[in-house]
Each structure stands twice: as C-alpha cells, then as structure tokens.
Design goal:
Length: 378
C-alpha cells in the first residue's frame, strides 16, 4: 500500500505522513510550504518524501507588499491543487485535504487511485449555517466565500471517502445527506513527548484557554461566564491570536476580568497548560480541537462544548465535562464544581493524562487510520 497526501497548510498532515512512513506506506506528501521553513512541523518525515510546491511563499510575499491576500486565497489554493495533481501517480490512495483536493481527486480517480478527502471540521454547509447564526445573534454582517463552499461540496461528491475526526463531524455530514459508509472516523492524537505536565508554581485556581480569539471559538461565552462567577483566588488566562476583529468588543467589555498572554510559542505551550487548573474550550464549531488533547496530556481536565469533538476523548465527569454550545450557565456550573472540589479536579486531570497516554497518541492514530486504509483497499 502506498499513500500520497496533498495539503495546503500544516494541520495534522505531517503526523499522518510520519505514521505512514514508519510503516512503509508513504509515497509522498505534497505541501504548499517550502521544505526549508517546515522545521519540526514536518515531524519525522524525510525530505525525499516531501514534494514542495511553495505557494505559501507567494502568499507571504503578497502580504508583505500590502496586497489583500483574502481575495486571492481561492486562486492560490486552486493553483496549488492544479500543480499538486501533476504529482499524483504510482500510489494506491490519495488523501487530499479539504479545499485543495478537487483537481487532484479527479486526476487520481482517472488513474484508478482510491481518493479520500481529509476534512478536519464540520460539513461546510453546517459550518456556514451555525457561524451565520452566531454573527447574526450579535448583529454582525459576515461574508462567506460561496466559491470555497461549492468547491468543498464537489470534493465531497467526487471522493470515494471522507476522513473525519469526531462523532460531531459525522453527525453534520449525515444531516447533509452523506452516507455513513462513505465516512472514515478516526480521532486525532497528541505528542506526549512534546506535551508534558510541569509543576504548577502557585495555588491559584486558573482557567486556561488557548487558541484563536474569535466568535467561532466561543471565547465571548467564557469571558461572560468567568466575569459573572466572581470567584476568589482565581484567574482566567487566555492565550492566542486575535483572528476575528469582532471579538475585540468582548475583550474590551470584560477587560480586567482576564489576563491576556498573547501568542504562545510552541516550546512554551506545555508550561502554559501546566500552570492551569482546568482547560475550557467553548467553541461553536470545530472538528476535533487538538488543544484539548494537548491540555489533557499536561494533566488538565477539560470543559468543552458538544461541537469540539470532545465527546470522542472525554467521558463526562471522568476527564472533564461536555456542555451545550452558547450555554453560559453550564460553563459556570462546571467551572464552579471544579473550583469547589479541588481533589476531584486533580483526579480528573490525572484521568485526562492517562486517557491520552493510553488511547490518543499519534501512534494510536496511525494504527487506526492505517487499519481503515487497508479495509477500503480490500
């Protein structure tokens, strides 16, 4: 079995490629990044297995020149896909990441290659619908690229299979008419050598959040919940980049109620998690947010929403809690429970670390996804 991967971005693609390579199944991974900038992101994938089509360099240079990159995104992704399609040959399976796989999938199918769309988030129509609702709730007008959505819908139809990471994502595809037999559901993993718990330096009950700051991530609900709780000897620590200007009014509204750490370098993330007592992810829409697995590896219980993929990795009341989206009262209730029960909070953190070590390393992911690939080949 030989597998080719085509990806624009990083995501978990190089972890997948490393798992395939270690077992002798990787034909190549085609990336939009030049090899020289991949660094440790390429995991253990050897250079001879990487085919670089450095569209990202064009993207970067145009940004430096002050050109509106957003308007060119569709063109640049399409260019990458067309160039990548010329490298699809002599393999058994093509894994094309959603949004950049249409031409490659068509080329692969003409050559008798089994095709898989790798989709890390919910069905594109569900994603559009729920995010439209969220922006409308706050009176914000949000433009969506119909071209991107139409392209992804074509990929779903053209591909033989769609690989997804969680039950939540599976439900959104089933609701939009995709047959279950077309779906491959395998949850992601975490590098337990990179994400390790370090000693906590104080006795503050600290709620941590790490990720993009946006309405999609539901940060505004966490800000509201923490502000209303008014707990003593606590801190809400938020790390990440502002990726949505519409979150700024909420950050301003709750200023003084949280500590903003800004962007956290990769080498400092474990320390960031380890100074927390609980990790909270109140997202409106995810696939399976890997920050949850990272926080669990660092010994934190997780409070997340039903739309984060958390139900695939967390047992309610054992490693944390799964609550409905947009439910401030539920967030408050679970945060307060852990605050009032420090020993149970520590126990859940221990359970969380044990859960990922025994079930959700990248090696476990590799075993599961490769088993699925072999099944579809047969």
């Amino acid at each position: 079995m030989l597998v080719t991967i085509s990806v624009s971005g990083i995501f978990h693609a190089f972890h997948l490629a490393e798992q395939l390579q270690r077992r002798g199944y990787l034909k190549k991974i085609i990336t939009n990044y030049p090899k020289i900038v991949l660094g440790k992101w390429k995991s253990g994938v050897s250079n001879d297995k990487i085919e670089a089509i450095p569209i990202q360099t064009i993207h970067h240079l145009l940004g430096k020149l002050g050109i509106n990159i957003y308007s060119l995104n569709f063109f640049l992704r399409d260019m990458f896909d067309r160039l990548a399609s010329k490298n699809i040959k002599n393999c058994d399976i093509l894994v094309g990441f959603s949004g950049v796989g249409l031409h490659s999938i068509k080329k692969a199918k003409r050559n008798g290659i089994i095709t898989i769309v790798e989709r890390g988030s919910s069905h594109s129509l569900y994603s559009k619908k729920i995010l439209y609702e969220e922006y409308k709730k706050f009176g914000i007008k949000k433009a969506y690229s119909e071209k991107f959505i139409k392209r992804e819908l074509k990929e779903y139809r053209e591909a033989d299979y769609i690989s997804i990471p969680s039950k939540f994502v599976e439900r959104t595809f089933l609701e939009n008419g995709v047959p279950k037999e077309k779906l491959i559901r395998v949850p992601y993993g975490v590098d337990i050598e990179e994400f390790k718990q370090t000693p906590k330096k104080d006795n503050i009950f600290r709620i941590v959040y790490l990720g993009q700051l946006s309405l999609r991530k539901g940060v505004h609900y966490l800000l509201q919940a923490y502000s209303e709780l008014k707990l003593k000897n606590t801190e809400l620590l938020i790390g990440g980049r502002i990726t949505d200007e519409n979150i700024k009014p909420f950050l301003k509204k709750y200023e003084g109620n949280y500590k903003f750490a800004g962007y956290i370098p990769q080498e400092n993330i474990s320390e960031f998690y380890s100074q927390g007592s609980v990790f909270v992810l109140p997202s409106i829409e995810e696939g399976l947010a890997m920050v949850q697995l990272q926080a669990m590896a660092c010994g934190l219980p997780v409070i997340c929403t039903t739309n984060t993929g958390g139900e695939d990795i967390i047992r309610n009341g054992k490693e944390g809690f799964v609550v409905p989206i947009r439910d401030v009262e539920a967030l408050k209730e679970k945060i307060l429970y852990l605050y009032n029960n420090p020993e149970k909070c520590k126990r859940m953190g221990y359970n969380a670390k044990k859960m990922v070590r025994e079930n959700f390393t990248w090696d476990y992911y590799g075993d599961r996804i490769i088993k699925k690939y072999k099944e579809i080949l047969n």
